[in-house]
Automatic annotation (TrEMBL):
Protein name in the entry: Histidine triad nucleotide-binding protein
Active site (UniProt): H102
Species of provenance: Tumidithrix elongata BACA0141
CDD domains: PKCI_related
Domain HIT: 8-116
Amino acid sequence: MSQPTETIFSKIINRQIPANIVYEDDLSLAFRDITPQAPVHILVIPKQPIPMLAEATAQDQALLGHLLLVAAKIAKDEGLDRGFRVVINNGDHGGQTVFHLHLHILGGRAMQWPPG
C-alpha cells in the first residue's frame, strides 16, 4: 500500500480549506464538488486516508460499506428519488485526480450510458 500523502481532501478534513459540507460523522465527510458535473454532485470521503479503491484491504471492508450507506442517505436527503449515480474513479486511467478515495454522488438529471 502506498504511503498516504497530504491531499486537498485531507486539508478539507482538517478544516485547512473550506468546503460546502453536507454530512459528517466519525468516519466520513461529504461536501459539494466545486466543479459539479450534474445538478447534484457531492463527494463522500473517508476520514482515514486510503489512496484508491485498489489499495483498500479487508480491514477497510466496514468503512467501504459505510461510505456506500452514507452516499445513499445523502442522495435521499438531496431528493434524488428518481435515481442517482455513485462513481469511484481508480488510478490515472480511471480518471482519478485526487489520490484519497472518494465517491461521487451525481444526480438531478438523467445519466447517460456508457459514462465515458
